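task queued by scheduler; priority normal; single chain, no ligands, no partner chains; default sampling; output format set to C-alpha coordinates
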Amino acid sequence: MQLIKVAIIGMGPRGLTVLERMLEHARTMPAGKQLQVEIFDRRPFGEGVHDSQQPDHLLINTVSSQVTMFAPSSIAGAGQGLSLVQWAQLEGYRRIDGLYCRAGSDIGEPITDADHLPRSLLGEYLAWFYNHLAQQLPSSITLNPRHHRVIDLIPGRAGYEVVLDNDEVSQVDYVVIATGHGNRQPTAQDLAFSEFVVQQASRNPHLSYFSTPYPVQGLSNIAPQATVAIQGFGLTAHDVISALTLGRGGRYVERQGQLKYLPSGEEPNLLLFSRNCLPFAARGINQKGLTGKHVAQFFTPAAMLAQREQVLARTGSPQLDFRHDVLPLIIKEMAYAYRIAAADQPVAHEGFVPSAEELMAINRILWPLEDQTFASQEDFGRFFEALVRDDLDHALKGNIGSPVKAATDVLRDTREALRVAVEYSGLTPCSHRYFVEHFNAITNRVSFGPPRQRNFEYLALREAGLIDIAGGPGAQLIMDGDRNQFRIDTHYSHHTERRYADALVVARLDNYSPLSDGAALTKNLLARGLIQPYRNGDYHPGGIDIDANLHPVGLQGKPEKRLWAIGYPVEGQHFYTHALPRPEIASRQTLDAQRCVLDLWDSMSSHPQLSLPVSANDELSHSAPPVSRSMS
Protein backbone atom coordinates (compact mmCIF):
# COMPACT_ATOMS: atom_id res chain seq x y z
CA MET A 1 0.00 0.00 0.00
CA GLN A 2 1.49 3.33 -1.07
CA LEU A 3 0.83 6.39 1.10
CA ILE A 4 -0.07 9.56 -0.81
CA LYS A 5 -0.30 12.89 0.98
CA VAL A 6 -2.44 15.75 -0.27
CA ALA A 7 -2.72 19.09 1.51
CA ILE A 8 -5.92 21.12 1.54
CA ILE A 9 -5.05 24.67 2.50
CA GLY A 10 -8.22 26.18 3.91
CA MET A 11 -11.11 24.14 5.30
CA GLY A 12 -14.01 26.51 4.76
CA PRO A 13 -16.86 25.70 2.35
CA ARG A 14 -14.57 25.10 -0.68
CA GLY A 15 -12.17 22.87 1.22
CA LEU A 16 -15.17 21.00 2.63
CA THR A 17 -16.49 20.34 -0.86
CA VAL A 18 -13.12 18.96 -1.97
CA LEU A 19 -13.22 16.60 1.01
CA GLU A 20 -16.83 15.68 0.21
CA ARG A 21 -15.88 14.81 -3.39
CA MET A 22 -13.03 12.63 -2.08
CA LEU A 23 -15.63 10.71 -0.09
CA GLU A 24 -17.94 10.54 -3.11
CA HIS A 25 -15.26 9.10 -5.38
CA ALA A 26 -13.29 7.08 -2.83
CA ARG A 27 -14.41 3.83 -4.45
CA THR A 28 -12.67 4.84 -7.70
CA MET A 29 -9.41 5.86 -6.05
CA PRO A 30 -6.49 4.01 -7.68
CA ALA A 31 -5.89 0.60 -6.17
CA GLY A 32 -2.97 0.14 -3.83
CA LYS A 33 -3.10 3.76 -2.58
CA GLN A 34 -3.67 5.10 0.92
CA LEU A 35 -4.57 8.80 0.92
CA GLN A 36 -3.63 11.01 3.86
CA VAL A 37 -5.30 14.42 3.72
CA GLU A 38 -3.31 17.10 5.51
CA ILE A 39 -5.74 19.88 6.48
CA PHE A 40 -4.44 23.34 7.30
CA ASP A 41 -6.65 26.10 8.70
CA ARG A 42 -6.13 28.27 11.74
CA ARG A 43 -9.91 28.61 12.14
CA PRO A 44 -12.35 25.91 13.28
CA PHE A 45 -12.58 23.37 10.47
CA GLY A 46 -15.55 23.92 8.20
CA GLU A 47 -16.50 27.41 9.28
CA GLY A 48 -14.26 29.47 7.02
CA VAL A 49 -15.24 33.13 7.38
CA HIS A 50 -18.58 32.10 8.90
CA ASP A 51 -17.37 32.33 12.48
CA SER A 52 -19.79 30.53 14.78
CA GLN A 53 -18.88 32.98 17.55
CA GLN A 54 -19.81 36.14 15.64
CA PRO A 55 -22.89 38.12 16.77
CA ASP A 56 -26.24 36.60 15.90
CA HIS A 57 -27.53 39.80 14.29
CA LEU A 58 -25.28 39.23 11.23
CA LEU A 59 -27.42 37.39 8.67
CA ILE A 60 -26.83 35.37 5.52
CA ASN A 61 -28.52 36.87 2.47
CA THR A 62 -29.94 33.58 1.16
CA VAL A 63 -33.02 31.94 2.62
CA SER A 64 -32.12 28.98 4.80
CA SER A 65 -33.83 26.38 2.63
CA GLN A 66 -31.59 27.26 -0.34
CA VAL A 67 -28.28 26.54 1.42
CA THR A 68 -26.77 23.08 1.70
CA MET A 69 -23.38 21.37 1.63
CA PHE A 70 -24.79 18.11 0.26
CA ALA A 71 -24.57 17.41 -3.45
CA PRO A 72 -27.59 15.72 -5.07
CA SER A 73 -27.74 11.95 -4.43
CA SER A 74 -24.39 12.01 -2.67
CA ILE A 75 -22.82 9.36 -0.48
CA ALA A 76 -22.34 11.98 2.23
CA GLY A 77 -26.06 12.67 2.26
CA ALA A 78 -27.12 9.06 1.77
CA GLY A 79 -29.19 10.34 -1.13
CA GLN A 80 -30.87 13.14 0.85
CA GLY A 81 -28.61 15.50 2.76
CA LEU A 82 -29.74 18.13 5.21
CA SER A 83 -30.13 21.73 4.09
CA LEU A 84 -29.26 24.48 6.54
CA VAL A 85 -32.86 24.90 7.68
CA GLN A 86 -33.39 21.14 8.12
CA TRP A 87 -30.23 20.86 10.17
CA ALA A 88 -31.21 23.85 12.33
CA GLN A 89 -34.64 22.37 12.97
CA LEU A 90 -33.18 18.98 13.92
CA GLU A 91 -30.74 20.72 16.26
CA GLY A 92 -33.70 22.30 18.06
CA TYR A 93 -33.19 25.88 16.97
CA ARG A 94 -36.20 28.19 17.23
CA ARG A 95 -36.76 31.91 16.86
CA ILE A 96 -37.25 33.62 20.22
CA ASP A 97 -37.69 37.42 20.29
CA GLY A 98 -35.79 37.75 17.02
CA LEU A 99 -32.90 35.52 18.14
CA TYR A 100 -32.21 31.91 17.17
CA CYS A 101 -31.68 29.58 20.13
CA ARG A 102 -31.87 25.90 20.97
CA ALA A 103 -35.13 25.56 22.84
CA GLY A 104 -38.07 23.28 23.53
CA SER A 105 -40.79 22.87 20.92
CA ASP A 106 -43.21 24.93 23.01
CA ILE A 107 -40.94 27.99 23.16
CA GLY A 108 -40.74 30.69 20.50
CA GLU A 109 -41.49 30.10 16.85
CA PRO A 110 -40.25 27.41 14.47
CA ILE A 111 -37.64 28.31 11.86
CA THR A 112 -39.12 28.41 8.37
CA ASP A 113 -37.75 27.85 4.88
CA ALA A 114 -37.92 31.61 4.28
CA ASP A 115 -35.78 32.65 7.26
CA HIS A 116 -32.46 34.40 6.74
CA LEU A 117 -30.47 32.73 9.50
CA PRO A 118 -27.45 34.16 11.35
CA ARG A 119 -24.06 33.54 9.80
CA SER A 120 -22.97 32.13 13.14
CA LEU A 121 -25.55 29.38 12.65
CA LEU A 122 -24.21 28.72 9.16
CA GLY A 123 -20.76 28.40 10.75
CA GLU A 124 -22.11 25.76 13.14
CA TYR A 125 -23.66 23.89 10.22
CA LEU A 126 -20.39 23.93 8.27
CA ALA A 127 -18.45 22.68 11.31
CA TRP A 128 -21.03 19.92 11.76
CA PHE A 129 -20.64 18.99 8.10
CA TYR A 130 -16.86 18.66 8.50
CA ASN A 131 -17.32 16.23 11.39
CA HIS A 132 -20.00 14.40 9.42
CA LEU A 133 -17.56 13.87 6.54
CA ALA A 134 -14.70 12.87 8.82
CA GLN A 135 -16.85 10.11 10.33
CA GLN A 136 -17.89 8.75 6.92
CA LEU A 137 -14.50 8.55 5.20
CA PRO A 138 -13.39 5.02 4.35
CA SER A 139 -10.22 3.52 5.82
CA SER A 140 -8.38 4.32 2.58
CA ILE A 141 -8.63 8.08 3.35
CA THR A 142 -7.36 9.46 6.65
CA LEU A 143 -7.24 13.04 7.95
CA ASN A 144 -4.42 14.88 9.66
CA PRO A 145 -5.91 18.23 10.70
CA ARG A 146 -3.54 21.07 11.66
CA HIS A 147 -4.67 24.39 13.16
CA HIS A 148 -1.92 26.42 11.52
CA ARG A 149 -1.59 28.90 8.70
CA VAL A 150 0.41 27.90 5.62
CA ILE A 151 2.88 30.62 4.63
CA ASP A 152 4.87 28.95 1.85
CA LEU A 153 5.06 26.04 -0.59
CA ILE A 154 8.47 24.83 -1.69
CA PRO A 155 8.23 22.57 -4.76
CA GLY A 156 10.37 19.53 -5.32
CA ARG A 157 10.48 16.60 -7.71
CA ALA A 158 7.87 14.58 -5.83
CA GLY A 159 5.64 17.19 -4.21
CA TYR A 160 5.84 20.21 -1.96
CA GLU A 161 7.19 21.23 1.40
CA VAL A 162 4.32 22.97 3.19
CA VAL A 163 5.78 25.63 5.49
CA LEU A 164 3.64 26.64 8.49
CA ASP A 165 3.56 29.82 10.53
CA ASN A 166 5.30 28.01 13.42
CA ASP A 167 8.18 27.10 11.04
CA GLU A 168 7.15 23.45 10.90
CA VAL A 169 7.43 21.83 7.47
CA SER A 170 5.18 19.07 6.14
CA GLN A 171 6.06 17.08 3.02
CA VAL A 172 3.13 16.35 0.70
CA ASP A 173 2.66 15.03 -2.82
CA TYR A 174 -0.19 17.31 -3.90
CA VAL A 175 -1.82 20.56 -2.75
CA VAL A 176 -5.28 22.10 -3.12
CA ILE A 177 -5.53 25.83 -2.39
CA ALA A 178 -8.96 26.68 -0.96
CA THR A 179 -8.11 29.78 1.06
CA GLY A 180 -11.27 31.79 0.34
CA HIS A 181 -11.51 35.54 0.75
CA GLY A 182 -8.25 37.39 1.21
CA ASN A 183 -7.35 40.60 2.98
CA ARG A 184 -5.64 43.30 0.96
CA GLN A 185 -2.38 44.92 1.85
CA PRO A 186 -2.88 48.54 2.98
CA THR A 187 -3.31 50.81 0.00
CA ALA A 188 -1.91 54.33 -0.30
CA GLN A 189 -5.36 55.62 0.68
CA ASP A 190 -5.50 53.29 3.71
CA LEU A 191 -2.14 54.63 4.86
CA ALA A 192 -3.18 58.23 4.29
CA PHE A 193 -6.42 57.82 6.25
CA SER A 194 -4.65 56.03 9.09
CA GLU A 195 -1.99 58.75 9.25
CA PHE A 196 -4.69 61.43 9.27
CA VAL A 197 -6.31 59.75 12.28
CA VAL A 198 -2.99 59.60 14.14
CA GLN A 199 -2.17 63.23 13.38
CA GLN A 200 -5.58 64.57 14.39
CA ALA A 201 -6.29 62.28 17.34
CA SER A 202 -5.47 64.88 19.98
CA ARG A 203 -7.94 67.34 18.39
CA ASN A 204 -10.71 64.80 17.83
CA PRO A 205 -10.64 61.77 20.15
CA HIS A 206 -13.52 60.16 18.20
CA LEU A 207 -11.58 60.12 14.93
CA SER A 208 -11.00 56.58 13.62
CA TYR A 209 -10.59 54.62 10.41
CA PHE A 210 -11.57 51.02 9.65
CA SER A 211 -10.29 49.65 6.34
CA THR A 212 -12.56 46.65 6.96
CA PRO A 213 -15.40 46.22 9.45
CA TYR A 214 -14.52 42.62 10.26
CA PRO A 215 -14.60 41.30 12.83
CA VAL A 216 -17.44 43.68 13.71
CA GLN A 217 -16.57 43.44 17.40
CA GLY A 218 -13.81 45.95 16.62
CA LEU A 219 -16.46 48.59 15.92
CA SER A 220 -17.24 48.64 19.64
CA ASN A 221 -14.42 51.19 19.95
CA ILE A 222 -16.58 53.77 18.18
CA ALA A 223 -18.04 56.16 20.77
CA PRO A 224 -21.81 56.82 20.86
CA GLN A 225 -21.00 60.53 20.46
CA ALA A 226 -19.31 59.93 17.10
CA THR A 227 -20.73 60.34 13.63
CA VAL A 228 -19.85 57.34 11.46
CA ALA A 229 -19.51 57.41 7.67
CA ILE A 230 -20.16 54.00 6.11
CA GLN A 231 -18.73 53.65 2.61
CA GLY A 232 -20.95 51.18 0.78
CA PHE A 233 -24.59 50.14 0.53
CA GLY A 234 -24.34 46.36 0.18
CA LEU A 235 -24.44 43.44 2.57
CA THR A 236 -21.28 44.53 4.37
CA ALA A 237 -22.75 47.98 5.02
CA HIS A 238 -25.81 46.35 6.56
CA ASP A 239 -23.49 44.37 8.84
CA VAL A 240 -21.95 47.63 10.04
CA ILE A 241 -25.37 49.20 10.58
CA SER A 242 -26.52 46.14 12.50
CA ALA A 243 -23.38 46.13 14.67
CA LEU A 244 -23.84 49.80 15.59
CA THR A 245 -27.56 49.47 16.36
CA LEU A 246 -28.68 45.97 17.33
CA GLY A 247 -25.15 45.31 18.55
CA ARG A 248 -25.47 48.33 20.84
CA GLY A 249 -28.65 47.10 22.52
CA GLY A 250 -31.28 48.67 20.28
CA ARG A 251 -34.21 46.65 19.01
CA TYR A 252 -36.97 46.70 16.44
CA VAL A 253 -40.65 46.35 17.24
CA GLU A 254 -43.70 46.25 15.00
CA ARG A 255 -46.43 48.78 15.76
CA GLN A 256 -49.57 49.09 13.69
CA GLY A 257 -47.94 47.21 10.84
CA GLN A 258 -44.85 49.45 10.81
CA LEU A 259 -41.35 48.58 11.97
CA LYS A 260 -40.06 50.92 14.66
CA TYR A 261 -36.58 51.16 16.15
CA LEU A 262 -36.17 51.56 19.92
CA PRO A 263 -32.69 53.00 20.54
CA SER A 264 -30.54 52.09 23.51
CA GLY A 265 -28.81 55.48 23.56
CA GLU A 266 -25.46 53.88 22.72
CA GLU A 267 -25.79 54.26 18.94
CA PRO A 268 -23.63 56.74 17.01
CA ASN A 269 -25.12 58.75 14.16
CA LEU A 270 -24.71 56.94 10.83
CA LEU A 271 -24.08 58.36 7.36
CA LEU A 272 -24.17 56.25 4.19
CA PHE A 273 -22.40 57.02 0.95
CA SER A 274 -20.86 55.29 -2.07
CA ARG A 275 -19.79 56.04 -5.62
CA ASN A 276 -23.36 56.10 -6.97
CA CYS A 277 -25.24 56.25 -3.66
CA LEU A 278 -27.89 53.77 -4.80
CA PRO A 279 -29.64 51.34 -2.44
CA PHE A 280 -29.23 47.60 -2.87
CA ALA A 281 -32.53 45.97 -3.83
CA ALA A 282 -34.14 43.66 -1.30
CA ARG A 283 -34.62 39.97 -2.02
CA GLY A 284 -38.14 39.25 -3.26
CA ILE A 285 -40.27 36.64 -1.52
CA ASN A 286 -39.33 33.32 -3.10
CA GLN A 287 -42.34 31.92 -4.95
CA LYS A 288 -40.39 29.48 -7.11
CA GLY A 289 -39.93 26.71 -4.59
CA LEU A 290 -36.68 25.05 -3.66
CA THR A 291 -35.20 24.49 -7.12
CA GLY A 292 -37.45 26.53 -9.40
CA LYS A 293 -36.00 29.21 -11.64
CA HIS A 294 -36.77 31.22 -14.73
CA VAL A 295 -36.40 29.05 -17.84
CA ALA A 296 -34.30 31.16 -20.18
CA GLN A 297 -35.22 31.36 -23.84
CA PHE A 298 -32.74 33.90 -25.19
CA PHE A 299 -29.82 34.32 -22.80
CA THR A 300 -28.61 30.73 -22.56
CA PRO A 301 -25.23 28.94 -22.65
CA ALA A 302 -26.09 27.69 -26.13
CA ALA A 303 -26.87 31.23 -27.28
CA MET A 304 -23.50 32.43 -25.99
CA LEU A 305 -21.68 29.65 -27.79
CA ALA A 306 -23.53 30.55 -30.99
CA GLN A 307 -22.63 34.21 -30.53
CA ARG A 308 -19.00 33.26 -30.12
CA GLU A 309 -19.04 31.28 -33.37
CA GLN A 310 -20.52 34.25 -35.20
CA VAL A 311 -18.01 36.67 -33.72
CA LEU A 312 -15.13 34.34 -34.57
CA ALA A 313 -16.31 34.10 -38.18
CA ARG A 314 -16.72 37.86 -38.40
CA THR A 315 -13.61 39.07 -36.58
CA GLY A 316 -11.22 36.12 -36.39
CA SER A 317 -11.31 36.30 -32.59
CA PRO A 318 -13.66 34.34 -30.31
CA GLN A 319 -13.79 37.12 -27.71
CA LEU A 320 -17.20 38.73 -27.26
CA ASP A 321 -17.94 42.39 -26.74
CA PHE A 322 -20.16 42.42 -23.65
CA ARG A 323 -22.26 45.44 -24.54
CA HIS A 324 -22.71 44.42 -28.17
CA ASP A 325 -22.91 40.60 -28.02
CA VAL A 326 -24.13 39.76 -24.50
CA LEU A 327 -26.04 42.63 -22.88
CA PRO A 328 -28.84 42.81 -25.51
CA LEU A 329 -29.72 39.16 -24.82
CA ILE A 330 -29.70 39.78 -21.05
CA ILE A 331 -32.07 42.71 -21.45
CA LYS A 332 -34.33 40.71 -23.78
CA GLU A 333 -34.48 37.84 -21.26
CA MET A 334 -35.28 40.26 -18.43
CA ALA A 335 -38.03 41.86 -20.52
CA TYR A 336 -39.45 38.41 -21.29
CA ALA A 337 -39.61 37.53 -17.58
CA TYR A 338 -41.09 40.97 -16.89
CA ARG A 339 -43.91 40.36 -19.40
CA ILE A 340 -44.71 36.91 -18.02
CA ALA A 341 -45.08 38.33 -14.51
CA ALA A 342 -47.07 41.34 -15.69
CA ALA A 343 -49.43 39.14 -17.73
CA ASP A 344 -49.57 36.47 -15.00
CA GLN A 345 -49.59 33.79 -17.65
CA PRO A 346 -47.20 32.03 -20.04
CA VAL A 347 -45.87 34.08 -22.94
CA ALA A 348 -44.76 32.52 -26.23
CA HIS A 349 -41.07 33.14 -26.83
CA GLU A 350 -41.29 32.70 -30.59
CA GLY A 351 -41.18 36.13 -32.14
CA PHE A 352 -40.92 37.84 -28.76
CA VAL A 353 -39.78 41.46 -29.03
CA PRO A 354 -39.65 43.70 -25.95
CA SER A 355 -41.98 46.66 -26.06
CA ALA A 356 -40.73 50.21 -25.56
CA GLU A 357 -42.40 50.25 -22.14
CA GLU A 358 -40.70 46.99 -21.12
CA LEU A 359 -37.30 48.27 -22.24
CA MET A 360 -37.88 51.46 -20.23
CA ALA A 361 -38.74 49.34 -17.17
CA ILE A 362 -35.54 47.28 -17.51
CA ASN A 363 -33.50 50.45 -17.97
CA ARG A 364 -35.00 51.89 -14.78
CA ILE A 365 -34.00 48.72 -12.93
CA LEU A 366 -30.42 48.69 -14.20
CA TRP A 367 -29.69 52.41 -14.57
CA PRO A 368 -32.03 54.38 -12.28
CA LEU A 369 -29.81 57.50 -12.41
CA GLU A 370 -30.10 57.78 -16.19
CA ASP A 371 -31.59 61.17 -17.15
CA GLN A 372 -31.91 62.12 -13.48
CA THR A 373 -30.72 65.45 -12.07
CA PHE A 374 -30.86 66.60 -8.48
CA ALA A 375 -30.90 70.13 -7.15
CA SER A 376 -29.77 69.31 -3.62
CA GLN A 377 -29.01 66.60 -1.11
CA GLU A 378 -32.58 66.84 0.13
CA ASP A 379 -33.81 66.30 -3.42
CA PHE A 380 -31.61 63.23 -3.85
CA GLY A 381 -32.65 61.92 -0.44
CA ARG A 382 -36.32 61.91 -1.50
CA PHE A 383 -35.37 60.03 -4.67
CA PHE A 384 -33.36 57.48 -2.65
CA GLU A 385 -36.16 56.82 -0.17
CA ALA A 386 -38.70 56.44 -2.96
CA LEU A 387 -36.43 53.81 -4.55
CA VAL A 388 -36.23 51.87 -1.28
CA ARG A 389 -39.98 51.96 -0.65
CA ASP A 390 -40.90 51.05 -4.23
CA ASP A 391 -38.42 48.17 -4.20
CA LEU A 392 -39.85 46.81 -0.94
CA ASP A 393 -43.34 46.89 -2.44
CA HIS A 394 -42.06 44.74 -5.30
CA ALA A 395 -40.16 42.43 -2.94
CA LEU A 396 -43.38 41.71 -1.03
CA LYS A 397 -45.12 40.78 -4.29
CA GLY A 398 -42.50 38.07 -4.79
CA ASN A 399 -40.19 36.90 -7.53
CA ILE A 400 -43.09 35.65 -9.66
CA GLY A 401 -45.78 38.16 -8.72
CA SER A 402 -43.65 41.27 -9.27
CA PRO A 403 -42.52 42.00 -12.84
CA VAL A 404 -39.51 43.86 -11.40
CA LYS A 405 -38.39 40.97 -9.18
CA ALA A 406 -39.08 38.43 -11.92
CA ALA A 407 -36.80 40.44 -14.21
CA THR A 408 -33.99 40.85 -11.67
CA ASP A 409 -34.16 37.14 -10.80
CA VAL A 410 -33.11 36.46 -14.39
CA LEU A 411 -29.65 37.70 -13.43
CA ARG A 412 -29.45 34.93 -10.80
CA ASP A 413 -31.09 32.20 -12.82
CA THR A 414 -28.96 32.67 -15.96
CA ARG A 415 -25.62 32.76 -14.18
CA GLU A 416 -24.32 29.81 -16.20
CA ALA A 417 -24.83 31.72 -19.46
CA LEU A 418 -22.80 34.58 -17.98
CA ARG A 419 -20.04 32.12 -17.14
CA VAL A 420 -19.98 30.81 -20.72
CA ALA A 421 -19.70 34.40 -21.95
CA VAL A 422 -17.12 35.67 -19.46
CA GLU A 423 -14.81 32.91 -18.27
CA TYR A 424 -11.35 32.13 -19.63
CA SER A 425 -11.04 35.51 -21.38
CA GLY A 426 -14.33 35.09 -23.18
CA LEU A 427 -14.71 38.87 -23.42
CA THR A 428 -12.46 41.42 -25.04
CA PRO A 429 -10.25 43.08 -22.41
CA CYS A 430 -12.11 46.40 -22.67
CA SER A 431 -15.55 44.85 -22.31
CA HIS A 432 -14.28 42.53 -19.57
CA ARG A 433 -13.37 45.64 -17.59
CA TYR A 434 -16.85 47.08 -18.23
CA PHE A 435 -18.47 43.83 -17.11
CA VAL A 436 -16.48 43.53 -13.86
CA GLU A 437 -16.36 47.17 -12.83
CA HIS A 438 -19.79 48.31 -14.00
CA PHE A 439 -22.33 45.70 -15.00
CA ASN A 440 -21.45 43.12 -12.35
CA ALA A 441 -21.76 45.85 -9.72
CA ILE A 442 -25.23 46.58 -11.09
CA THR A 443 -26.08 42.88 -10.95
CA ASN A 444 -25.03 42.70 -7.31
CA ARG A 445 -27.13 45.77 -6.48
CA VAL A 446 -30.37 44.67 -8.14
CA SER A 447 -30.28 40.89 -7.75
CA PHE A 448 -28.02 39.88 -4.83
CA GLY A 449 -29.13 42.37 -2.19
CA PRO A 450 -29.88 41.97 1.51
CA PRO A 451 -32.80 40.24 3.20
CA ARG A 452 -35.94 42.40 2.98
CA GLN A 453 -35.89 43.10 6.68
CA ARG A 454 -32.61 45.04 6.33
CA ASN A 455 -34.23 47.65 4.09
CA PHE A 456 -37.24 47.88 6.42
CA GLU A 457 -34.76 48.39 9.25
CA TYR A 458 -33.08 51.18 7.29
CA LEU A 459 -36.41 53.01 7.02
CA ALA A 460 -37.04 52.54 10.75
CA LEU A 461 -33.58 53.89 11.61
CA ARG A 462 -34.16 56.86 9.31
CA GLU A 463 -37.45 57.62 11.04
CA ALA A 464 -35.65 57.38 14.39
CA GLY A 465 -33.14 60.00 13.19
CA LEU A 466 -30.11 57.68 13.45
CA ILE A 467 -29.16 57.28 9.79
CA ASP A 468 -28.99 59.46 6.71
CA ILE A 469 -27.62 59.50 3.18
CA ALA A 470 -24.42 61.53 3.26
CA GLY A 471 -23.99 62.12 -0.45
CA GLY A 472 -25.35 61.73 -3.92
CA PRO A 473 -23.92 60.39 -7.17
CA GLY A 474 -20.25 61.20 -7.49
CA ALA A 475 -19.76 61.84 -3.76
CA GLN A 476 -16.13 62.48 -2.82
CA LEU A 477 -14.36 61.63 0.42
CA ILE A 478 -11.93 64.19 1.81
CA MET A 479 -9.75 64.52 4.92
CA ASP A 480 -10.63 67.87 6.44
CA GLY A 481 -7.70 69.05 8.54
CA ASP A 482 -9.48 72.25 9.61
CA ARG A 483 -12.35 70.37 11.26
CA ASN A 484 -10.33 67.23 12.13
CA GLN A 485 -12.96 65.07 10.48
CA PHE A 486 -13.67 63.16 7.32
CA ARG A 487 -15.78 65.11 4.84
CA ILE A 488 -18.14 63.90 2.12
CA ASP A 489 -18.70 66.36 -0.73
CA THR A 490 -21.42 66.09 -3.36
CA HIS A 491 -21.48 68.60 -6.20
CA TYR A 492 -24.88 69.76 -7.36
CA SER A 493 -25.59 72.17 -10.18
CA HIS A 494 -25.17 75.38 -8.19
CA HIS A 495 -23.47 74.33 -4.97
CA THR A 496 -21.55 71.65 -3.07
CA GLU A 497 -23.10 69.98 -0.04
CA ARG A 498 -20.93 68.65 2.73
CA ARG A 499 -21.35 66.12 5.49
CA TYR A 500 -18.83 65.43 8.25
CA ALA A 501 -17.92 62.26 10.13
CA ASP A 502 -15.55 61.24 12.92
CA ALA A 503 -15.23 57.57 12.02
CA LEU A 504 -14.92 56.11 8.54
CA VAL A 505 -15.76 52.44 7.88
CA VAL A 506 -15.02 50.94 4.46
CA ALA A 507 -17.92 48.51 4.09
CA ARG A 508 -16.98 46.36 1.13
CA LEU A 509 -15.15 43.08 0.64
CA ASP A 510 -11.83 43.10 -1.16
CA ASN A 511 -11.58 41.52 -4.56
CA TYR A 512 -8.89 38.87 -4.44
CA SER A 513 -5.74 39.69 -6.38
CA PRO A 514 -2.33 38.10 -5.85
CA LEU A 515 -0.89 41.59 -6.47
CA SER A 516 -2.62 43.11 -3.44
CA ASP A 517 -3.39 40.16 -1.15
CA GLY A 518 -1.72 40.51 2.22
CA ALA A 519 -1.20 36.80 2.94
CA ALA A 520 2.37 35.54 3.23
CA LEU A 521 1.41 32.43 1.24
CA THR A 522 0.32 34.53 -1.74
CA LYS A 523 3.50 36.62 -1.65
CA ASN A 524 5.69 33.55 -1.51
CA LEU A 525 3.86 31.71 -4.28
CA LEU A 526 4.28 34.80 -6.46
CA ALA A 527 7.98 35.09 -5.60
CA ARG A 528 8.54 31.43 -6.49
CA GLY A 529 6.68 31.81 -9.78
CA LEU A 530 4.16 29.13 -8.84
CA ILE A 531 1.26 31.50 -9.50
CA GLN A 532 0.75 34.64 -11.54
CA PRO A 533 -2.08 37.17 -11.79
CA TYR A 534 -4.70 36.31 -14.35
CA ARG A 535 -4.75 38.84 -17.17
CA ASN A 536 -7.07 39.20 -20.11
CA GLY A 537 -4.79 41.18 -22.38
CA ASP A 538 -3.86 44.26 -20.38
CA TYR A 539 -6.75 43.87 -17.93
CA HIS A 540 -6.43 42.15 -14.55
CA PRO A 541 -9.91 41.54 -13.12
CA GLY A 542 -8.46 39.70 -10.11
CA GLY A 543 -7.58 36.13 -9.24
CA ILE A 544 -4.75 33.87 -10.31
CA ASP A 545 -4.25 32.31 -13.72
CA ILE A 546 -5.45 28.70 -14.01
CA ASP A 547 -5.95 26.12 -16.74
CA ALA A 548 -9.18 24.22 -17.43
CA ASN A 549 -8.37 21.67 -14.69
CA LEU A 550 -7.84 24.41 -12.07
CA HIS A 551 -4.06 24.07 -12.02
CA PRO A 552 -2.39 27.43 -11.36
CA VAL A 553 -0.39 28.62 -14.34
CA GLY A 554 3.04 29.77 -13.17
CA LEU A 555 5.23 32.62 -14.30
CA GLN A 556 6.75 30.47 -17.05
CA GLY A 557 3.28 29.91 -18.54
CA LYS A 558 3.09 26.22 -17.56
CA PRO A 559 0.44 24.72 -15.26
CA GLU A 560 1.52 23.29 -11.91
CA LYS A 561 0.21 19.74 -12.32
CA ARG A 562 0.45 18.84 -8.61
CA LEU A 563 -1.35 21.98 -7.47
CA TRP A 564 -5.00 23.04 -7.72
CA ALA A 565 -6.83 26.21 -6.73
CA ILE A 566 -10.56 26.49 -6.15
CA GLY A 567 -13.01 29.22 -5.19
CA TYR A 568 -12.25 32.84 -4.55
CA PRO A 569 -8.53 32.78 -5.51
CA VAL A 570 -9.58 31.97 -9.09
CA GLU A 571 -12.32 34.62 -9.31
CA GLY A 572 -11.18 36.19 -12.54
CA GLN A 573 -10.72 33.25 -14.84
CA HIS A 574 -13.91 31.93 -13.24
CA PHE A 575 -17.03 33.94 -12.41
CA TYR A 576 -19.12 33.97 -9.26
CA THR A 577 -17.24 31.32 -7.31
CA HIS A 578 -18.53 32.34 -3.88
CA ALA A 579 -22.14 31.08 -4.03
CA LEU A 580 -22.83 28.17 -1.69
CA PRO A 581 -24.55 25.08 -3.15
CA ARG A 582 -28.35 24.87 -3.34
CA PRO A 583 -30.30 21.69 -2.58
CA GLU A 584 -30.89 19.27 -5.46
CA ILE A 585 -28.73 21.28 -7.85
CA ALA A 586 -25.28 20.30 -9.11
CA SER A 587 -23.52 23.48 -8.01
CA ARG A 588 -20.46 25.00 -9.60
CA GLN A 589 -18.65 24.61 -6.28
CA THR A 590 -19.26 20.85 -6.33
CA LEU A 591 -18.36 20.47 -10.00
CA ASP A 592 -15.08 22.35 -9.58
CA ALA A 593 -14.15 20.30 -6.51
CA GLN A 594 -14.97 17.13 -8.42
CA ARG A 595 -12.70 18.19 -11.26
CA CYS A 596 -9.84 18.63 -8.78
CA VAL A 597 -10.43 15.25 -7.14
CA LEU A 598 -10.79 13.24 -10.35
CA ASP A 599 -7.70 14.93 -11.76
CA LEU A 600 -5.87 13.97 -8.57
CA TRP A 601 -7.00 10.35 -9.01
CA ASP A 602 -5.73 10.39 -12.62
CA SER A 603 -2.38 11.78 -11.54
CA MET A 604 -2.01 9.12 -8.85
CA SER A 605 -2.68 6.44 -11.48
CA SER A 606 -0.35 7.94 -14.06
CA HIS A 607 2.57 8.36 -11.66
CA PRO A 608 2.53 5.33 -9.38
CA GLN A 609 5.85 6.19 -7.80
CA LEU A 610 5.12 9.93 -7.82
CA SER A 611 8.35 10.48 -9.68
CA LEU A 612 6.85 13.52 -11.32
CA PRO A 613 9.15 15.55 -13.57
CA VAL A 614 10.25 18.95 -12.37
CA SER A 615 7.77 21.44 -13.76
CA ALA A 616 8.79 24.27 -16.01
CA ASN A 617 8.38 26.53 -13.02
CA ASP A 618 10.66 24.62 -10.64
CA GLU A 619 13.91 26.31 -11.68
CA LEU A 620 12.42 29.68 -10.93
CA SER A 621 10.79 28.33 -7.79
CA HIS A 622 14.08 27.31 -6.26
CA SER A 623 15.96 30.42 -7.32
CA ALA A 624 13.47 32.91 -5.88
CA PRO A 625 13.62 33.24 -2.09
CA PRO A 626 10.38 33.51 -0.16
CA VAL A 627 9.42 37.11 0.50
CA SER A 628 7.95 36.53 3.92
CA ARG A 629 7.60 34.01 6.69
CA SER A 630 5.68 36.32 8.94
CA MET A 631 2.07 35.70 9.83
CA SER A 632 -0.35 37.91 7.96
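post-processing summary
- The longest strand covers residues 2-9.
- DSSP finds 16 helices and 21 strands in the chain.
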